[in-house]
Amino acid sequence: MNRATPAHPTHEHAGPPEGVLRWLLTTNHKDIGTLYLTFSFLMFLIGGVFALLIRSELFEPGLQIMRPEFFNQLTGLHGLVMIFGAIMPAFVGFANWLLPLQISASDMAFARLNNFSFWLLVAGALLLAGSFLAPGGAMAAGWTMYAPLSVQQGPAMDLTIFAVHIMGASSIMGAINIIVTILNLRAPGMIIMKLPLFAWMWLITAYLLIAVMPVLAGDVTMLLFDRHFGTSFFNPAGGGDPVIYIHIFWFFGHPEVYIMILPAFGIISHVIPAFSRKPLFGYSSMVYAGAAIAILSFLVWAHHMFTIGMSVTGQLFFMYATMLIAVPTGVKVFNWTATMWRGSITYETPMLFAIGFIFVFTMGGFTGLMLAMAPLDIQYHGTYFIVAHFHYVLVAGSLFALFAGWYYWSPKWTGWMYNETRGKIHFWLTMIAFNLTFFPMHFLGLAGMPRRYADYPAQFTDWNQVSTIGAFIFGLSQVYFLFAVALPVYRGGGDLKRADAKPWDGAAGLEWSVPTPALYHTFETPPVVQ
Question: Which residues of 61-71 are buried (b: 16+ CB within 10 A; e: fewer)?
Fold first, then answer.
C-alpha cells in the first residue's frame, strides 16, 4: 500500500490529465479498465462482422458472395479476434476496474506494466487485422492453425504468429499483475478466504494464463521455424509429426476455455446473490470448485482429438477425465440455484442476463458431456454440432456474464443508471436471437453438415437460413446495446437518473463503499475488514 509521506504528498484531489495523453500514458486502473472494455467491444463488433459475412455466404447452397479461400480466412480470423481480442480483454477490463475496488487497493500492483500490457494487445490486434493486406490475404488455416496447412500458408501466417506472441505476452503481464495485486494489496483483515468470488476466480485464471500461454508460444514458434528455418517439428518427411502440434495446441487450448469462463463464474457469483437478496450459497465450495476446474483442465486436452487414431486406453482416460470436470462445474450451477431458492428475487437486467447465463451455459455443458463420449464424438467431430456446443459455452457463457457484470457495476463506474426498459429489450433480443442462431446448428451437425465449408448440400438450407436470420438479429441487438444503452450511460444526463452509492439492495462488497461515480483515486487509506 502507498503511504503518504511529506516527501510524497497525497494526490487524492488530483484529477486525471486532459486530452489524448491521458489515455496513452495512463497508469490508473479505472482508465485502463475502460480502455480494455472499449477495445474488446470494438473487436467484438469486428469479429461479429466476420461472422455475419460467414452466415451470409451460408444463407443458401452454392457460392454467393465470396471465394472459399476468403471464407476460410474469415473463419480463422473470426475465432482469433473473438477469443484474443474480445472475450479475454473484456474480462481483463473488469479485473482492472473491480479488483482494486473489491480488495481496497489504491491501484494495480504494477501500474506502468498495466499500461504496457494494454498497448501490446492493441499492437497484436493491428497485426491480426493487417494480415488481410498480406499477399494472398489473411491466413486460412482456422483459428487453431493446424500443421501442415499452416506451414504452407502465405506471409499472413507469419503476421498471425507474431500477433499471437504479442497478445500472449500481454496476457502473461496482465496475469502477473493480477496475482501480485490480489496477494499483496488486500485490505487489512481480508484473509484469502474472504476474497470476493470475482477476485478468487481471477486469481485462479491468472495462474492458468501463466501456465498455458508459453505453451501456445512454443507451439507457434516451432511452426515459424518449420516455415522458415528448415526444421521438421511437424513434417513427417523430416521425422516430425503434425499430430504433435495438435497435442501441444490443445494442452494450451482446453485450459484456455476455462480462462474465458472462470471470470464469468465470478461475475455471476456476485449478481445472483445481489438480486436474490441472500448470501451466496457455499462460498468455500465455489472456491474449491474453481480450483478443481483449473487443475482438471490440464487433464482433458485430447478429448478434442478422439479422431486421430488414439488408443482405446487413451480414449477412456480422456473420456472419464472430461466427465469428471463436469462435477465441479455442476457444483457451481447447484450453488447458484440454491442461492436463488426462496430468495426475494427481482428481475432487473443484470439478473436476467445471469439467469440466461445459467440456462444457456448448462445447455452447452450437456452437449459437452455428449462430446466427452469418444464413440459419439467420432460421429460429431468436424460437424456443426461442435460449432453449436462451443458457442453455447463461450458466446452464451462469457458474453452473457459480461453483460450481466456491465449492467450490475456500470452505475458505480459512471454515476448514471442505465434505462431499465432498454436493458430488458437488449436481453430478450439477445437471448432469442442467440438461440435462433445456434440451436439449429445442433440439428445440422447431427444430420452431418461439416464445418468450415463455404457450400453445402440443399437439404441443409432451411436450418442455415434460420441461423443466418438469427445471427443478423443478434448482431443488431449488440448495436442497439451500444447506441441505446451504453453510450447514453457514459454520456450521462437525458432521461437517465443519477445512480446511488449502492443502487442494488442486495449488493455486497467493498466496491459499493466508494462514492458514485468511483473517484479517480480511491482507497488512499484502505479500510480494515472485520
Answer: eeeeebeeebb
Cell numbers for 223: 511452426
Q: Which of 440, 439, 448 is nearest to 364 (CA)?
A: 439
- Does the predicted model carry a pTM greater than 0.85? yes
Which cell goes with 517?
461515480
The most distant pair of C-alpha atoms in the chain lies apart, rounded to whole Å, by 78
* Structure-block grid coordinates of residue 22: 491521458
**Distance between CA atoms of residues 517 and 5, nearest Å:** 28
Rg over CA atoms, the chain: 23
pLDDT (tens place) for every residue of the chain, 530 residues total: 333 333 334 444 456 677 888 899 999 999 999 999 999 999 999 999 999 999 999 999 999 899 999 999 999 999 999 999 999 999 999 999 999 999 999 999 999 999 999 999 999 999 998 899 999 999 999 999 999 999 999 999 999 999 999 999 999 999 999 999 999 999 888 999 999 999 999 999 999 999 999 999 999 999 999 999 999 999 999 999 999 999 999 999 999 999 999 999 999 999 999 999 999 999 999 999 999 999 999 999 999 999 999 999 999 999 999 999 999 999 999 999 999 999 999 999 999 999 999 999 999 999 999 999 999 999 999 999 999 999 999 988 899 999 999 999 999 999 999 999 999 999 999 999 999 999 999 999 999 999 999 999 999 999 999 999 999 999 999 999 999 999 999 998 888 999 998 999 989 989 998 888 988 888 777 677 76
Question: What are the structural domains of the chain?
Answer: 261-500 (1.20.210.10)
C-beta atoms surrounding 243 within 10 Å: 16
Task: Concatenate the DSSP letters of all residues of 382-451 into one string.
Answer: TBHHHHHHHHIIIIIIIIHHHHHHHHHHHHHHHSB---HHHHHHHHHHHHHHHHHHHHHHHHHHHTTPBS
Taking the chain, what is the end-to-end CA distance rounded to the nearest angstrom?
19
Instruction: Return the C-alpha cell found at 213.
Output: 500461454
Active site residues: 78, 107, 143, 170-171, 254, 256, 258, 269, 303-304, 329, 332, 451
Neighbours of 498 (CB within 10 A): 14
**What does 269-310 look like in DSSP terms, one character per residue?**
HHHHHHHHTSPPTTHHHHHHHHHHHHHHGGG-GGGG-GGG--
